[in-house]
Structure to design on (429 residues):
C-alpha cells in the first residue's frame, strides 16, 4: 500500500515530520535500506526496471521505498503489487529543484529513513533528490541513465555528475557513449557501471502458455486472438511492433513499410501494440496510405503474450533506444527481428543471426546511428527493410533459425536474477 506521502509542493508548510517517514526504529535500522526515485508519469522501460528492482530487493530482505508520482503509471502498478515495497507519492516536476520547500521535505525524508543508497531515474529526480540525499549524508547516490540521448555539457550537469552522484548505471554501451558524447570528462569512468535490463524467462513462458490455453478454449477475443488462431500455413505474413506511440519509436516508418510490402504483392498484416500521444496522427496516416483492414491498432497490452502468438516478424522502427527490452521479449518468443542500426540495438541484434539490421531511411535523424560495420554487408545488400521482409517471407527455415538463435541469446546473458545480484553488489560496494 502507498506510504505516507511527501507533501505536494504547493501545500501549506507541514508541522515537523508531518507526511514524512518517522525516524527508524532499532529493528528497521538493522535492515539494508534503499530508496528508488522515479517521478515519471508515463510507463516505459525505466519504470519497469524500477518496479522490478524494488520488488526483487524487497524479496531479498531489503527495506525498500519507491518514490513515484501519484498520478504516474508506476505508482498505480506499484500499488497493485506492493509486496513489501513502501510506496511514497512524490509529485516532482522539472523545476522542483528550485523549490526550497520541496528540497527541505526531501532532505527530512532521507534523514528520517537513512537509506544506504538512493537510485534516481529522471533528470528531474537527479536535480531535486540528488542534492537532498547528498546533504542528508546518503553514502551511495546512484543515477540510472536509460536514455540514449546526449547529456548536455552544462554547469548543472557537471556539478550533478561530478559532485552529487557516486555512481552512474547505464543499461547499454550505447547509453554510455551518449553520456560522454558532449563531455568525455563528465565523471570518472570507474564510477560508471553497465547493468542491462533483466528478464524472467519462466514468467514469460508461463504467460505464453496461459495465452495458448485461452486460444484453444476459444475464450480469447479480438483481432490479435483471431490472427493467433490462424495456422501460419494459411494466414498472411503478420508484422508486429510494440511500444509507446511517439516520435522516438518511429511507427510512421512501420506503416510506410507495410504500404511498400503490399505494393510489392506481399499478403501481410501490420499490428501496432501500444498507446500514446501520436495515435491519432498514425491512424490518419494509415488511412492516407490506404492500409484499411491490413493494419490493426491493438492498443496498450498489459500482457503481450497474444501479440507474440499473432505475429511472424517483429519490427522495431525506433530512431533511438536506451535498451529496447521488447527486443529481448521478441527473442524469448522466437521472433526474428528487423530494426535500424541505432543506439544499442546492434548490441542485441546480431545481423543475419537473430535478426536483420538496416540503416535509417534518408531524411530520418537519430542521435546515435551507427554506420555499417567495416567489411560486414547489411542483408540484403541494398540495406532495405522491405527487401529484408520479402526475403524472410519466402524463407521459413531461416526465420525459424533466427528465432531459435534469438532465444538462446536472450537466455544466455540477461537473467533477472544475475542482474539483481549485480545491483546488490553496487548497492553495498
Amino acid at each position: 500500500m502507498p506510504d505516507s506521502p511527501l507533501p505536494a509542493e504547493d501545500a501549506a508548510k507541514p508541522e515537523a515530520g508531518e507526511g514524512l517517514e518517522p525516524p527508524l526504529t532499532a529493528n528497521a535500522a538493522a535492515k539494508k535500506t534503499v530508496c528508488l526515485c522515479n517521478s515519471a508519469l508515463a510507463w516505459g522501460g525505466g519504470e519497469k526496471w524500477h518496479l522490478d528492482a524494488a520488488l526483487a530487493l524487497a524479496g531479498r530482505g531489503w527495506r525498500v521505498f519507491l518514490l513515484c508520482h501519484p498520478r504516474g503509471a508506476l505508482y498505480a502498478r506499484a500499488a497493485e503489487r506492493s509486496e513489501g515495497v513502501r510506496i511514497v507519492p512524490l509529485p516532482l516536476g522539472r523545476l522542483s529543484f528550485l523549490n526550497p520547500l520541496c528540497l527541505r521535505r526531501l532532505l527530512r525524508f532521507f534523514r528520517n529513513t537513512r537509506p544506504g543508497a538512493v537510485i534516481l531515474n529522471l533528470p528531474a529526480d537527479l536535480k531535486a533528490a540528488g542534492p537532498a540525499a547528498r546533504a542528508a549524508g546518503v553514502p551511495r547516490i546512484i543515477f540510472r541513465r536509460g536514455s540514449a540521448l546526449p547529456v548536455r555539457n552544462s554547469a548543472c550537469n557537471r556539478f550533478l555528475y561530478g559532485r552529487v552522484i557516486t555512481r552512474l548505471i547505464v543499461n547499454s554501451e550505447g547509453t554510455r557513449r551518449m553520456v560522454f558524447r558532449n563531455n568525455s570528462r563528465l565523471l570518472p569512468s570507474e564510477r560508471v557501471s553497465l547493468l542491462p535490463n533483466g528478464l524472467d524467462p519462466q514468467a514469460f513462458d508461463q504467460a505464453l502458455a496461459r495465452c495458448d490455453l485461452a486460444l484453444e478454449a476459444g475464450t480469447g477475443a479480438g483481432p490479435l486472438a483471431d490472427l493467433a488462431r490462424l495456422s501460419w500455413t494459411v494466414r498472411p505474413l503478420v508484422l508486429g511492433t510494440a511500444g509507446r506511440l511517439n516520435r522516438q519509436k518511429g511507427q510512421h516508418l512501420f506503416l510506410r513499410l507495410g504500404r511498400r510490402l503490399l505494393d510489392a504483392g506481399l499478403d501481410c498484416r501490420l499490428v501496432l501494440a501500444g498507446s500514446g500521444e501520436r495515435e491519432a496522427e498514425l491512424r490518419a496516416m494509415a488511412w492516407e496510405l490506404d492500409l484499411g483492414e491490413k493494419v490493426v491498432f491493438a492498443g496498450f497490452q498489459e500482457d503481450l503474450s497474444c501479440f507474440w502468438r499473432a505475429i511472424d516478424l517483429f519490427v522495431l522502427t525506433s530512431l533511438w533506444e536506451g535498451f529496447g527490452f521488447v527486443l529481448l521479449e521478441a527473442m524469448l518468443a522466437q521472433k526474428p527481428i528487423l530494426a535500424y542500426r541505432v543506439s544499442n540495438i546492434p548490441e542485441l541484434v546480431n545481423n543475419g543471426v537473430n535478426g536483420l539490421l538496416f540503416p535509417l531511411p534518408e531524411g530520418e535523424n537519430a542521435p546515435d546511428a551507427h554506420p555499417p560495420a567495416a567489411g560486414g554487408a547489411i542483408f540484403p545488400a541494398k540495406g532495405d527493410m522491405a527487401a529484408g521482409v520479402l526475403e524472410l517471407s519466402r524463407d521459413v527455415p531461416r526465420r525459424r533459425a533466427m528465432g531459435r538463435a534469438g532465444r538462446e541469446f536472450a537466455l544466455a546473458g540477461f537473467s533477472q536474477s544475475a542482474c539483481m545480484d549485480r545491483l546488490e553488489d553496487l548497492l553495498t560496494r
